[in-house]
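Aim 2 progress update. The chain analyzed this quarter is reproduced below.
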Amino acid sequence: MLGAIIGDIVGSRFEWNNIKSKHFELFTEDCFVTDDTVMTLAVAKALLESRRDFAGLSEKAVECMRELGRLYPNCGYGTRFEDWLISENPEPYNSFGNGAAMRVSACAFAASSLEEVRRLSKAVTEVTHNHPEGLKGAEATAVSIFLARSGAGISEIRDYITEYYYPIDFTLDEIRDSYEIDESCQGTVPQALAAFFESTSFVDAIRNAISIGGDSDTIAAIAGSVAEGYYGIPASLRARAVKYLDGQLFKILLDFEAIHPSKVV
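Predicted structure tokens:
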């Protein structure tokens, strides 16, 4: 989960100012927390507050996302999600936006099996993004993280994703010049996963993700969440990233890590 937060923070300054390069400083004073981090931590909070068997997780996800979304209102939410946050009767709105994938990583750390990963991903996603592509994007991300943290190799994860979710039939070099912002799951998740598949380290996955442009914070959040599961996160990066979290968000991270530790190396 922390990998998603780091990817979001590093990518935040490039979302509307893309850089088609891997050469940039990771953390600067221009970096900030976006909706990707806030909603990632909202899902983590929902998992913590659910019953041991995660029954009622969807209801908790609605509660926690609306609670944190209202506390952090200016973080870059999509228009329909903003309406959902303040609605008196919040209902799913058939979205296939990439918000489904950027917030799901905690499910892969809380789950104990692939079957449970899929169940938890669906529970926290369908409350807003109940379009098949939204559900698929979130599940592909969560499954990739779970496989990565369970010891699967990059080629094994790639083969699994290609067979069951998306054909990763391109390289980053092939799409870098032409790729533009696309806020759909189907136009973001495959690219984010490719950034991980072509990586050699956690930091390299983040740099790969940002180097193609597009919705940089979200692509880096997705790639970073999988890269954490596979490589782990350098302790020095964790120390720098958490400085961007206020006390309330940091507490949720610590509470989650107390039960489901981040992979810090």
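The radius of gyration is 16 Å. The CA atoms of residues 3 and 225 lie 4 Å apart. These observations will guide the mutagenesis experiments scheduled for the next reporting period.
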